[in-house]
């Protein structure tokens, strides 16, 4: 049996659950509530990683009296100096940089969602899904080989700034911050779903023609959904990048544009929890994170050896590498066959209390 660090495993699971909830909730707003099949979710998530690895580091370098261009030209050396001298001793500046990073990610994610919404106004169904997937892949290729964005080593990427080093325990601080923001996003989504705007989004999803006949601006509804959902996806990218348990010490295009992690898993979680069900997405994130994402992602090599797959003729390392692909496929198939409505089906709309 592989040795398991229970504390580390719990922290890892909590961090992943919080990040995946925010990311899946943003997808649920677009695909579940409004009916926009977004298979380019990874590109919005990547915005957050780029903002932390690039913009936040440049701001920190400027405040430390260094040339911001060194963040790209001499990335490792510059960030090691910032992480050892600047962030541990400058809490106010570090907090300000974190706030700016979150605000910038929300703004840039929303802007990218706005640009992506124009095809969404004309295309439907499979055509829109493929267009968003292709756009995400094109941005991944461009970002990978753009020195001004990700540095001169595409596979390594950029060393991440330790924005919470001033707390003394940046790992624990990032987990608590991520969990707190996930709770705020949950509350926001609950209110949005039950607001007139949320009911209008579902009406557009169910019958666009009827919504148009009632004088509703369908194009504006779809555009707003893309903007808000994409901004929240970028926020999830920030939360991932500031967490050393998840992102490690660097961020690269190959990790933040990973379609398996940041597009297909959120789709699986949304289907499992129940499309257009905020509570269902939260429950699915917790259950899947605790049972699959956390343990499998950390201990898949040990699990492959424990199962003795080599006795069945499988290569242990290749089996471990493909285990997550098998699990996500099996999970989606099981959900669609056994409970297509999800763990918690879409609840009926509740009106907010009238203000007096």
Task: Give a quick summary of the entry.
With 356 residues, the chain is an all-alpha fold. It is built from 16 helices and 2 strands.
Please bin the fraction of helical residues: over 70%
Helix-strand makeup class: mainly alpha
Q: Detail the poorly predicted runs.
A: none
Backbone shape: globular
Q: How are the strands ordered across the major sheet?
A: 1-2
Give the DSSP E fraction (strand runs of 2 or more residues).
under 5%
Distance between the termini: 62 Å
N-to-C SSE string, H for helix and E for strand = HHHHHHHEHHHHHEHHHH
Q: How many runs of DSSP E, i.e. beta strands? A: 2
Gyration radius, in Å: 21 Å
Please count the helical segments.
16
**Biggest sheet details:** 2 strands, antiparallel
- How would you name the oligomeric state of the polypeptide chains in this document? single chain
Mean pLDDT: 89
Task: Describe the fold and architecture.
The chain is mainly α and 356 residues long. It contains 16 helices and 2 strands. The chain has a two-stranded antiparallel sheet with strand order 1-2. The longest helix has 32 residues, at 91-122.
């Amino acid at each position: 049996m592989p040795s398991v660090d229970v504390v580390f495993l719990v922290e890892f699971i909590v961090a992943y659950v919080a990040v995946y909830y925010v990311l899946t909730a943003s997808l649920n707003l677009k695909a579940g509530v409004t009916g926009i099949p977004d298979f380019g979710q990874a590109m919005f998530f990547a915005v957050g990683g780029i903002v932390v690895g690039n913009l936040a580091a440049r701001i920190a370098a400027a405040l430390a009296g260094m040339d911001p261009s060194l963040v790209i030209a001499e990335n490792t050396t510059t960030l090691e100096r910032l992480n050892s001298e600047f962030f541990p001793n400058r809490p106010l500046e570090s907090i300000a940089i974190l706030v700016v990073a979150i605000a910038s990610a929300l703004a840039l994610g929303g802007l990218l969602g706005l640009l992506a919404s124009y095809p969404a106004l004309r295309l439907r169904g499979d055509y829109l899904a493929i267009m968003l997937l292709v756009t995400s892949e094109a941005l991944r290729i461009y970002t990978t080989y753009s020195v001004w964005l990700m540095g001169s080593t595409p596979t390594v990427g950029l060393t991440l700034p330790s924005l919470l080093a001033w707390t003394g325990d940046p790992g624990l601080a990032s987990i608590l911050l991520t969990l707190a923001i996930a709770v705020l996003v949950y509350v926001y989504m609950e209110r949005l779903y039950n607001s007139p705007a949320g009911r209008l989004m579902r009406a557009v999803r169910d019958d666009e023609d009827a919504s148009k006949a009632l004088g509703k601006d369908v194009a504006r509804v779809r555009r707003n959904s893309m903007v808000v959902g994409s901004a929240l996806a970028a926020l999830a990218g920030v939360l991932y990048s500031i967490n050393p348990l998840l992102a490690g010490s660097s961020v690269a295009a190959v990790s933040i544009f990973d379609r398996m992690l940041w597009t297909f898993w959120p789709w699986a979680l949304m289907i499992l929890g129940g499309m257009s069900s905020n509570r269902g997405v939260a429950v699915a994130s917790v259950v899947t994170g605790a049972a699959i994402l956390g343990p499998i992602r950390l201990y898949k090599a040990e699990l492959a050896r424990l199962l003795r797959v080599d006795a069945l003729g499988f290569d242990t390392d290749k089996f471990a590498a493909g285990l997550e692909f098998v699990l996500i496929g099996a999970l989606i198939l099981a959900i669609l066959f056994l409970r297509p409505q999800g763990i918690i089906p879409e609840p009926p709309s509740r009106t907010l209390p009238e203000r007096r």
